[in-house]
Specification:
The chain has 170 residues and is mainly α. The protein has a single domain, classed as dinb family like domain (Four Helix Bundle (Hemerythrin (Met), subunit A), Up-down Bundle).
């Protein structure tokens, strides 16, 4: 796979997969934790993160994921993880194709009914920003309840995938 979008999109998918795996070890009470200024509970934020990303992907690529339920209706973290895996495959195919960041993308908002249009590059930027924002909110909740969140930055992704290497000093 080649292309400028490979690392940003793969990092986004990797970080969400890692966070879901981490959260699968939390208790039901911890998954229901929240803190002021964040989207909602850990579970609700994960559901929203996956659901919104699927809508961004649909707007960019056309085919809707073939899932039995919407992410926001899915409380099973294993099922959310499967959805993220599906989207990672979509993103890999997307990043392998020619990308026209200026291509106009139109859709009708399911929430407001507004007709929206944005350049494809902006939708990719929103996808990445949205994922980072909500993962950071979950980190805030985790630290508030005394749980150390995992390292999910781009350096950690690079170390985990061989895209970044560290050599100790001699």
């Amino acid at each position: 796979m080649t292309g400028e979008l490979v690392d940003p999109l793969r990092h986004n998918s990797w970080a969400t997969r890692q966070l879901l795996a981490f959260c699968r070890e939390l208790s039901p009470e911890q998954l229901q934790a929240s803190s002021e200024g964040n989207y909602g509970t850990i579970l609700a934020t994960l559901q929203h993160l996956v659901g919104a990303e699927s809508r961004y992907l649909f707007r960019l690529t056309g085919p809707k994921p073939d899932w039995p339920h919407e992410a926001e209706e899915t409380e099973d973290l294993g099922e959310l993880a499967r959805m993220v895996e599906d989207m990672a495959g979509f993103w890999n195919r997307f990043a392998a194709e020619d990308f026209d960041a200026e291509r106009a993308v139109s859709w009708v908002s399911t929430r407001s009914g507004h007709h929206n249009e944005a350049n494809a590059g902006l939708l990719v930027a929103q996808t990445l920003n949205h994922g980072n924002e909500h993962r950071a909110q979950i980190f805030t909740i985790l630290t508030t309840i005394g749980v150390e969140p995992p390292d999910l930055d781009a350096w950690s992704y690079g170390l985990a995938t061989g895209r970044f290497r560290e050599t100790p000093p001699r």
